[in-house]
Amino acid sequence: MTAHPASDWHPIHDTFYRLHRIYQMQWAGLDLSRYRVAAAPFGGPIALVRDDRQLLEAGAAPVLDSAISVFAASGAAIGRIEYDDDNNNNNNNNNNGGLMPLARIAGFSWNSREELVCVQEDGNVRVFSLGGQQEPTTTFSLGPEAREAGIVDCRFWDQGLVAMTGTFRFVYVNDIGEPKPRMLSASAAASGDPMQQHQRLAEMPHSWAVVAPHLTLSHHVEVLAATGRTVVLVDAGGMQDQLLDQGPYTRISVSPNGRLVALCSGNDGDSSSRVQVVSIDF
Fold it and tell me: Whole-prediction pTM value?
């Protein structure tokens, strides 16, 4: 018996939809919980690298590969980057052939040109093309402070990034294609004003987010960092307390148009968790 032509239409509210299978998903057998994932926007490529911050269970079958695997959204493998450290390669000849530890990735993301930007904990940045070619198209350093203190976390926008050092200061690059690393609040620290010089984070923020330059009134990047029970705004001129008192905020998310900020207090799964949505000027 022929199925009724309307049997595969499904109502959602007052509209009917039909599901068309375009291709078969190929993600079977891949445990994403063991990986760090960077997904490009608009259904673009997905990069996976083993999460070396996790403790592996004894007797499990760990993925010891340090390579970055690149997949299509369907799960089909489209590239592979044998990730290593250029500095280690240059020093291997002086190390009697011994292998040195690889620089760990502090964070990675796709930029608007569909290039994979990898920020290392040693303050170096490597940029790879979409196809997963082995050699980076661009490499640069985030500067001496990033190299000395190390990078612990980072955030990205279309063609730029902000990285947080081990001393909880922020270094930013507006255009990865023409990298010119600069420190946020550097002008305040160099002003000679003791009050300004002490305007820096004293501990790891509970969470933080970036407001991209094209979304700010100053046309410069800004960072929103949750510390204590409040949120502070860090920019090139210094740090301003937004005078909140309902934190700590474990998640911060800025709307795509830069007009709103969502603040989540409480831990994941906590029944007392609360989400506040405020304007960007708080």
Answer: 0.82
